[in-house]
Amino acid sequence: MKIRPEPGLTFDDVLLVPKRSSIRSRAAVDTSAELVPGIRLALPILSANMDTVTEAEMAIAMAQAGGIGILHRFMSIEAQAEQVRQVKRSESFVVENPVTVP
What are the boundaries of each domain within the chain? Predict the structure, then answer.
């Protein structure tokens, strides 16, 4: 395993000062981050692996937003496996053939 020497940052380490910018649109800003080599998060946020914070529902919501949810460890292996199955089976909600009124 290769350890990368770059430091990690927390909210206390970063301050965004409002000012004029040459960027035309907020959509043009790339806030993605590489979690590990080969895995890039569109939203560089991880949910806490606390039993009151992250289970399948939160992990799914985090993934849909571009982040990642870390499932907590305070459940049986079987329950953890079921949570992982729920997350892996989930898809973004898309209506493929919507019913419309003419």
Answer: 32-89
58, two tokens: 């939160």
Kindly give the interhelix angle for 77-89 and 56-65, rounded to the nearest 10 degrees. Answer: 30
Q: What is the pLDDT along the chain (102 residues), one digit of tens a residue?
A: 666 677 777 878 888 888 888 989 988 989 898 888 888 889 888 999 999 999 999 999 998 888 999 999 999 999 999 999 998 888 765 556 655 555
Cα 8 from Cα 96, distance rounded (Å): 41
Judge residue 33's burial from the number of C-beta atoms within 10 Å of its C-beta, 0-12 exposed, 13-18 middle, 19 or more buried: middle
50 within 8 A of 72, measured Cβ to Cβ: yes
